[in-house]
Amino acid sequence: MTPFPARIHCLLARDAPIGLVIRRGPSKRVATILWDRRRDEFKVGQWLKGRIYERRCDISPDGKRLIYFAMNGAWGSESRGSWTAISRVPYLKAIVFMPKGDCWNGGGMWARDRDYWLNDGPGGRSGHTIPKESTEVQRVGADPFGTESGECLQVYFPRLIRDGWTHAAEASSGRPKCAAVFEKDIGKGWTLRKIVNASINHPVGKGCYWDEHELVGPEAGQVTCHPTWEWADLDGKRLVWAADGKLWAAEVRSIGLANEAVLHDFNSMEYRRIAAPY
Prior knowledge:
278 residues, 21 strands, 5-stranded antiparallel β-sheet, mainly beta
């Protein structure tokens, strides 16, 4: 049986040429990888035996810190089986540790380099405990994004809008599993369209949330479908995307994409224990 390619989701820092790659595969193994977007160099941070809910994660504007929500199912442990944490990119070792005990809500977003919003449910009463805090960061009391606390999409949608995406449409009748459609102008008359799907009846190898993408050209009816692109965004003047366990990039020209290239292949990575340097 042919193994599924690694699943890739990326977080791009808004004010620094830094990215964080969240690489999953097998399903209960996940790694975080530093992406130097200026040189397209990659450095493995740490591995986790469990699951990171990438749509409830965020990287700080300066690219130095990560807030993430994870689950390993060890319900009787200190983590209570699931937790929100803040770490230093690209590592997962917590400087702020917030055990949760279930998978409702969790994760959060960065308002500023050191100020974070915790997705802790209505009124902030969803069950996080905070046995480990840090003076490096501080929690903002009010929700700065107008987010309705909830599962992945309630964090993911505000994150997309904050990062320059336009909420173009709600669920499409032509796409029964579509939760919403977002669009971003990528230059030269082209638009990147992100179709956010949500369904328990998902394709094999996907979770209940998965994205597909389309490129919409300057001419009427000029649409190219890219159902295998599981993540895509604009990085400066180039388009970057993840497909088949690899990270790709291409120039955007009036005729479409040019000079397409693989930046890195993450498929051969295997779990190993790595200690954070802090």
